Amino acid sequence: MTLPPLPRRSLSRRLFLTLLAGGGGTVLCAQTTAILVPFLRPLPPAPEAGRVYAGRLTDFVVGSVTRVLAGRCFVVRLDAGLLALSQRCTHLGCAVPWQAAEGRFHCPCHGSTFNTVGEVTGGPAPRPLDWLPITLDADAVWVSPTQPQQRAAFAPEQVTEL
Amino acid sequence: MTSLIDWLTRSRVWRSFFRHGWPDNARDRALVMTTNVFFHLHPVKINRASLRATYTFGLGLVTAIAFASLVVTGALLMFWYAPTVERAYPDILSLQTAVPYGQLLRNLHRWGAHLMVLTAVLHLARVFYTGAYKPPREFNWVVGVGLLALTLAGSFTGYLLPWDQLAFWAVTVGTSLASHLPGIGADLQAYLLGGPEVGQAALLRFYALHVMVIPLALALLTSVHFWRVRKDGGLAVPKIPRDTVLAFPVVAVIEVMLTLAVSLGLLLLSLAVDAPLEAVANPNLTPDPSKAPWYFVGLQEMLEHGHPFVMAIAGPLLAGLFVAAVPYLDPAETDAGVWFGSRRGAWITALSAVYTLVGVPALVVLSNAFPPRELLRGQAPEWVAQALIPGGATVLFTLAPLLALGVARVRPTRREALLVLFTLLLVTAAVVTVIGFQFRGPGFELYWPWQMPDGYNPWDSF
Lengths: 162, 462
Prior knowledge:
The structure holds 2 protein chains of 2 kinds.
Chain A: H1 13-40, E1 52-56, E2 65-68, E3 73-77, E4 81-86, E5 98-99, E6 104-106, E7 113-114, E8 120-122, E9 131-132, E10 134-137, E11 140-143, E12 160-161
Antiparallel strand pairs in A: 1-11, 2-3, 3-4, 4-9, 4-12, 5-6, 6-7, 7-8, 10-11
Chain B: H1 2-10, H2 12-17, H3 26-35, E1 45-47, H4 53-56, H5 59-78, H6 88-97, H7 102-129, H8 138-160, H9 165-178, H10 185-193, H11 200-231, E2 244-246, H12 250-272, H13 297-303, H14 308-329, H15 343-369, H16 372-375, H17 382-407, H18 414-438
Antiparallel strand pairs in B: 1-2
Helix pairs in contact in B: 5-7, 5-12, 6-7, 7-8, 7-12, 8-9, 8-11, 8-14, 9-10, 13-14, 13-18, 14-18, 15-18, 17-18
């Protein structure tokens, strides 16, 4: 038995409405996503709020490692100049303290160690500590903790020469 | 008595409430299930085998009850808590010291959360080992895996809210994992935290997720989960013998009794043990050791042995995909509803468990004594020591039992092969959780639990 052929119509009312609902739903989902992604994006930090006073130039003796609590970083005085290192462990973000007795940074979370210029000497950390830009204002030293710079190795241009 | 009930059930008030008579006969007991919104998730008749305590252990039900209790205690806690960096910690302090029963409510919420994670995992294991994921229940298994993921997300987002040292650093460590995803990692972490690090934006985001987004998603998905159980003919049980009873009042009694038991257990625990609260969060001072919440401490343990991407992202992601795909890897409809499928299945499971119980601690000790990362530092590229060696060892360890079955000329069925792999995964997760929780001390070094230095006791921050 063969069924009688359906009336040929290029676009029935039902098909038109189905396509309209499906297409409209797709557009709604797409536009929701398009709104949500920028809506949930974190706001950038205010550039000026990010500058933290670290101390006077004369405070930093060659070979010293000074903690800047407000900047969550350390300022290292090398022979060539100043190097600011973020205290965030590059492994999982713990605050890495400077251990003067050991002469290195030693993370309490998973035991990563870093030398005075922030290079990994042990433990699971995948890359050196991030460095932070330093600005000199006469003899006042400022660091910018909101602009951590990732790096694969220590290089002289990360040091603010004096 | 009978005339009183007759009078009651014929009254207009009763009939406006209930669309069934007094349920002392089969007809009205069936009508209870079909005309009551809360009961209609149950079938009218239920297979006697699915009521056996040693078949389900009531684990799914206990998980749902724990969730319900969390909704109630969580809503109450919201009356005394503001998600701001300035107020969160003092609010918890005053909740514990000034608000009558505040400490008790907080304890109930915390122990309820632990219970829900625990029973959700055990329920997953029960459904797997009884083959209850088999057709037509494949997709409901996937829904269940989604529910487990949401449960963990709910628990993790709640972990930050007390804003103490425990919360701050567990979430710092946990979200830093995301930053190791190649390409999008840093962005993903920033979206989660609302900024580059854990701060006010992160607290607010976690709060919104914890009290609104995740509970809503859980409630929705739980409804789907229950509804599909009902539509698939109740719990998976062997087809024969078919032996059914009217579900009302049997299931109602079981459910009320379990609710009472869970409430009593949580109440006694909450009276006996207080939820931990450490010093207020300090972004400049990481406590030593800093551990993730117990259900993620296994991941933290894995991190000790390789690159974060391999051990804590790629590995768990593959494991999660494998678990979600279980019903599609074993589509045979036979032996659903039978623990381990057969005696041989039970033996294979037991052997896999023993293999993992011995093998994983051995691997951990080996990797701790001869860490490839330190031995090869500067001599081989980092990806060899951090990815190739630990990743390769994990793959070999996983596939070895299947190879052994092949050598022994045991031709495992698909279900038996899955029993091996799933048992391996489950026991590994349990073992690394126990090692990370109980055997790691200051500096995340290995110690015997009875030789922990500095008076460190992991249970203080449970």
